[in-house]
Amino acid sequence: MKWPQHVRSQVQLGNEATGMVEVKRECSFAFRFLFRYKLCMASLTSLHFSGWGWLAVIGGAMFIGMNKGGLTGLGVLPVLLFAVVFPARESTGFVLPLLIVGDLCAIGVYRRVVIWKVFWALLPPALVGIAWGYSLMGRIAESEFGPLIGWIIIALIALQFLRSTFGEKLDHIFESRVFGLVMGVLTGVTTMLANAAGPVANLYFLSVGLPKWNLIGTSAWIFFVINLCKVPFSAHLGLTNGYSLTLAAALAPLVLFGFFVGRRIVTVMPQKLFERFLLACTAIGALKLIW
């Protein structure tokens, strides 16, 4: 799908000089948070991890920030790192508050580049998927659900490559309402069961031809709403609790710092490289679900 010129113009976030000033100001702000981070960590005596455990959760928080800052394909890395410290199901409750911290940064920075038509096409079926995923928790193991979603993503990636080979002959599949409904439901179910909906949503955004900044902005708002909707379900299951919120308070400055690092990187990344990076990370995310 070719977006018209007035849509493409939304990707402009200012000239390069202005962008550099903004990035420097934001990074200075992030470093001030990191300076105070040591005091915050010292007060959290209720958190007890091994050295490797702290490295895993600190790295996970940084990658959440970079993911929300624009490197949207990195979403699978925090899932892997938090799984080092917590069981897969319990880790979703610890990751969720940190995701919302990153979402708040993202919707503030990228609020002007959202494609609302795509947002509203994906959100309703995603909410249905969240409710479905909630009903499946406790009934289906991640070891059973993960491989199924992983293979579906691999098949969709293959279809995306076929589309690039055969041109517009397959466009009707990706532009159909049914495709959007299926991808929305898969996004909701996957995010509820495994916090791994990024590969599904990113593949949908690429399939409808969103430019880089529009993809990042639309993704930010989609996942902000989705993650907020997950909170009551996660709290009811006991996954998001006082302990997970305490950990989120400790790691929030690192999410903020990672956000500005991710934004700086994606600012200098060309569109084609961004799309290849996203497809590669999507494939890695699918393989993680399978194995």
Features:
single chain, 291 residues, mainly alpha
Task: Tell me what the structure shows.
The protein is mostly helical and 291 residues long. The protein has one domain. Helix content is 79%, strand content 0%. It has 13 helices and no strands. The chain has helices at residues 5-8, 16-42, 51-69, 76-85, 88-109, 116-136, 142-166, 171-174, 177-194, 198-207, 212-236, 242-267, 271-290. α9 (177-194) runs antiparallel to α10 (198-207). 44% of the residues are buried. Mean pLDDT is 78; it is low at 4-21 and 33-45.
Shape: globular
Over the alpha carbons, how many angstroms does the gyration radius reach?
19 Å
Mean pLDDT: 78
Q: Whole-Å distance between the termini?
A: 34 Å
Major β-sheet annotation = none
Helix content: over 70%
Give the SSE layout.
Layout: H1 5-8, H2 16-42, H3 51-69, H4 76-85, H5 88-109, H6 116-136, H7 142-166, H8 171-174, H9 177-194, H10 198-207, H11 212-236, H12 242-267, H13 271-290
Summarize the structure.
The chain has 291 residues and is an all-alpha fold.
